[in-house]
Amino acid sequence: MPCCTFSTCVHNLDPVILHIPGTPLALRWYGLAYVAGFALGYLVLLALSKKSLYVVKPNKLADFITLICLVGVIMGGRLGEFFFYWIPEHGWSGFCADPLWIFRVWQGGMASHGGILAVLLVAVLYARKQRLSIPAVCDGLAIVCPIGLFFGRVANFINGELYGRICSPENPIAVRFPSEYFEFSQATQYQIQEAVERAVGTPLQSLQIVNAEGQPQESVFELLTRLCRESESAREAFSNFLNARYPSQLFEALGEGLLLFVVLITLRLVWRNAPVGIFSALFCFLYAAARITSECFKEPDAPMWGSVTRGQYLSFAIIALGLVFLAIACRQKHSAKGAS
User: Fold this and answer.
1) 241, 258, 279: which is the final residue of a domain?
2) Cα-based angle 126, 132, 135 (whole degrees, multiple of 5)
3) Is residue 6 part of a domain?
4) 38 and 102 both lie in a single domain
5) Could you give the 3-state DSSP secondary structure of residue 16?
6) pLDDT tens for residues 184-206?
7) Which of 111, 148, 322, 331 has a CA-to-CA distance to 288 between 20 and 30 Å?
8) CA 165, 171, 175, 181 torsion: positive or negative?
9) What is the pLDDT of residue 4?
10) What is the arithmetic mean of pLDDT over 264-270?
């Protein structure tokens, strides 16, 4: 196991904002990211609707966004993670051994591709029920979807999950992620525990947080990461085993999130008579391009399919969806010209 010898930033952010006293519950950055994404998405769509730039009326928007959030984003994202990543890795036997995993969303594990497809399904059903144009309903969601993607990727970085591929320790933006601990052999994990124990000068067992019955309330990894946040010597001892990596979560936050939102909202404001479906098409193309690019810096979180990652492969399906929306937009534009 190669050790890192250069000075690189060590990830030591706490995914928990606040522990609720007397309970196992906690307020986490991951959950707050979703709340922020939903709230800002609603406010942007409300502003567009009031300017007659979105087909869903302001008085119906809150219920629509709530439906999109609960069924589309959360359920779709979790089911996407389950079918696209978890089942291929653990199998149905793994699900039978831990069926409650699918409900523990606070631990992370939301597939953006699954969320996008589920949001599309909810939008189609809602549009048909309300007798609205399906592409027009999807266009607004396409514009605000990058907001949620931005906050979600930032939350991934705070959690120290879905990190990047190994890079040079001399890279000024390189980060060492303690979550790499789970990729190590058991022997290496024991070496890390012993190194941190020597660094703090106290047996790790005596530092674990326990409940009233004396049972540990944190895993060994949670203890190690807590010590890294509290002790510079512990952080240095742990970092000697970690590889320098790209902060790919931030690349995704900027590309799939911030940049994509700026492009789409700008076009929506200046292109008032845009054909319906065009913003959905642009979202699909630009998101897929950003995701395929960022995956080149991201550590594959599923077995590679040749030289293509799972995320890149699924992005091709998003491109195909974009072609459908583009065809709808071109047809609508042609029909408008014919009518004039």
Assistant:
1) 241
2) 85
3) no
4) yes
5) strand
6) 999 999 999 999 999 999 999 88
7) 331
8) positive
9) 43
10) 97
**What is the reported pTM?**
0.86
Q: What is the pLDDT of residue 108?
A: 60
User: What does residue 164 show for φ and ψ, rounded to 5 degrees?
Assistant: -85, 180
Q: Which two tokens stand for residue 328?
A: 């709808």
User: 319 vs 29, 93, 235, 270, CA distance in Å?
Assistant: 31, 33, 43, 25
Distance CA 109, CA 102 (A): 9
Interatomic CA distance for residues 74 and 161, integer angstroms? 18
As a residue count, the chain comes to 340
Confidence of residue 21 (pLDDT cuts 50, 70, 90): confident
**What pLDDT digit, counting tens, does each position of 293-312 carry?**
999 999 987 767 778 898 89
Neighbours of 333 (CB within 10 A): 16
Could you give phi then psi for residue 308, rounded to 5 degrees? -110, 135
CA distance from start to end of the chain: 70
Q: Same structural domain for residues 117 and 59?
A: yes
159 and 210 within one domain: no
pLDDT band at 83 (very low <50, low <70, confident <90, very high): confident
Domain count across the chain? 2
Dihedral sign for Cα atoms in the order 208, 176, 85, 294: positive
Q: Provide the domain limits for residue 30.
A: 19-166+246-339
Residues 142 and 265 occupy one common structural domain = yes
Q: Is 129 exposed, middle or buried (0-12, 13-18, 19+ CB in 10 A)?
A: exposed
Average pLDDT over residues 286-299: 96
Tell me: do 235 and 287 sit in the same domain: no
The per-residue b/e assignment along 163-194, b for 16 or more CB within 10 angstroms, e otherwise, is bbeebebeeeebbbbbebbeeeeeeebeebbe
- The string of pLDDT tens digits covering residues 106-142 is 666 777 778 888 888 999 999 999 999 999 999 999 9
